[in-house]
Amino acid sequence: MKLLRAEFHGSPEVPCVKCDRRERGLAWGDFCSQCLKERSGRASRLASRISRPVVLLMGLYLAWKIPVTPGARVYAIIAVVGTYALLWKIVHTIAMEFLPR
Ligand SMILES: [Zn+2]
User: Fold this and answer.
1) At 8, which helix (H) or strand (E)?
2) How many domains does the chain have?
3) Distance 45 CA to ligand 1 centre (A)
4) How far away, in angstroms, is 93 Cα from ligand 1 center?
5) Which of 4, 33, 43, 85 is 20 to 30 Å from the Cα of 58, by its Cα?
């Protein structure tokens, strides 16, 4: 019984789904820490490539449309920075899920 339990639950080292490197505490079908880091770097580059032009267009639109008062400028800057952070995070999360191996 103890052997059976070890077989089903106690496998301490599981192979990475990409590089077959065994790592302790990994879930089946998961990436190892090195592959995860590399994947996060790729997702980060993609997120930056998508977020920068979108935020640039938004900034240009805001600079053209909002009234020229200091308060409005401050809110426009906050909106641009917030949009960049939010969009970057969304694209990064989606890319981490759907990037090819
Ligand atoms: Zn790996």
Assistant:
1) helix 2-9
2) 1
3) 20
4) 19
5) 43
